[in-house]
Automatic annotation (TrEMBL):
The lineage of its organism: Archaea, Methanobacteriati, Methanobacteriota, Stenosarchaea group, Halobacteria. Mg(2+) binds at E160. Keywords: Cytoplasm, Flavoprotein, FMN, Isomerase, Isoprene biosynthesis, Magnesium, Metal-binding, NADP. This is Isopentenyl-diphosphate delta-isomerase. Residues 168-334 form the FMN-dependent dehydrogenase domain. SMART domains: IMPDH. Homooctamer. Dimer of tetramers. It comes from the Archaea. It catalyses: isopentenyl diphosphate = dimethylallyl diphosphate. It comes from Natrinema longum. The gene is fni. Belongs to the IPP isomerase type 2 family.
Length: 353
């Protein structure tokens, strides 16, 4: 298989077999204020929300993970079928391989998601670095590939810097993002890949007309760490050391969510989100939805039912958090009281200077 496709297979294998998790997302520092007298029935609490006019049963996003290698088709099929069954949102991994390779099996690893989820909210995915090579018509091709409801443009420049074969020219990306946001037929989401988005960058993206920001902060899967493992496998010692050095780099997800939500009205919180309580906390901080990636990977390997079971667990945890904060709806949860403690408080205080 070509290099781009093999890289996708490498990533999944490393995530499944190596320690590529980091701590420090900051959710443990955010304590929602308990409501001892909620005056509601937990099972009647409304978890529905709207994303770009599409009503979701819960503010949950199966984050962009995979696609681009025939081995990933089964995973994407299970994830998409579960998104269809539970009415949550889902993104695919980078569609670069589908756009650049003339291979039906590779293409199927993407197109399978709309086949399995004809009604779900699905978004596509291209890299900001690739926008320097692609025109808007190329991005439209990615939209058409999965009949996408939105398109994510991912920012992964730390990952690229660690990759021996990475794209390390970030010049002109903001202008390219602005052009796509202005001309594309569907809404545009700009997402990080594990290192967070600052208030200043979120402001630049809002000014560029981006429809949503997915902060993907520090505190979950470390792509720098993943690339360190790939570099070790080919004896690229310098790149391996670089990956380990920057393993914990980034803006904690809780901080990034607060900062981005202060300047953009549609923020998705991801990066170390591991429970429905984390999703509830992110929404109280200003997010519209919470996204998870790695926690869905093992269930996807088991099949659709296992993915559905995880989503149902997340919804129960979310609904319980809403119950004990006195939040009868997602809009009420966005106004829930909370306290900020520990490292996250210190980080925010330093950022205010």
């Amino acid at each position: 298989m070509p290099e781009t496709s093999n890289r996708k297979d490498d990533h999944i294998r490393i995530i499944e077999t190596e320690d590529v998790e980091t701590t420090g997302a900051g959710f443990a520092d955010i304590e929602l204020v308990h409501e001892a007298l909620p005056e509601s029935h937990r099972d009647e609490i409304e978890t529905t929300t709207t994303l770009f006019g599409h009503e979701l049963a819960a503010p949950i996003v199966i984050e962009s993970m995979t696609g681009g290698h025939p081995n990933t088709t089964k995973l994407n099929r299970a994830l998409a079928a579960a998104a269809q069954r539970t009415n949550v949102a889902m993104g695919v991994g980078s569609q670069r391989a589908g756009l650049e390779l003339d291979d039906g099996d590779v293409l199927e690893s993407y197109t399978v998601v709309r086949d399995a989820a004809p009604d779900a909210f699905l978004y596509g995915n291209v890299g900001a670095a690739q926008l320097l090579e692609y025109d808007v018509d190329d991005v439209e091709t990615a939209v058409e590939m999965i009949d996408a409801d939105a398109m994510a443009i991912h920012l992964n420049f730390l990952q690229e810097a660690v990759q021996p074969e990475g794209d390390i020219d970030a010049r002109g990306c903001l202008a390219a993002i602005e052009r796509v946001a202005d001309e594309l037929s569907v809404p545009v989401i700009v997402k990080e890949t594990g290192n967070g988005i600052s208030r200043e960058t979120a402001t630049r993206l809002a000014d560029a007309g981006v429809d949503a920001v997915d902060v993907a902060g520090q505190g979950g899967t470390t792509w720098s760490g993943i690339e360190a493992h790939r570099a070790a496998a080919v004896d690229a010692d310098r790149q391996e050391r670089l990956g380990h050095l920057f393993r914990d780099w980034g803006i904690p997800t809780a901080v990034s969510t607060l900062e981005a939500a202060a300047v953009h009205d549609c923020v998705i919180a991801s990066g170390g989100v591991r429970s429905g309580l984390d999703i509830a906390t992110a929404i109280a901080l200003g997010a519209r939805a919470g996204g998870l990636a790695k926690p869905f990977l093992a269930p996807a390997g088991q099949g659709t039912d296992a993915v559905v079971e995880l989503i149902e667990t997340l919804v129960l945890e979310l609904r319980t958090a809403m119950f004990v904060t006195g939040s009868a709806s997602i809009s009420e949860l966005r106004g829930a009281e909370y306290a900020v403690l520990g490292r996250t408080k210190e980080y925010l205080e330093q950022r205010q200077h």
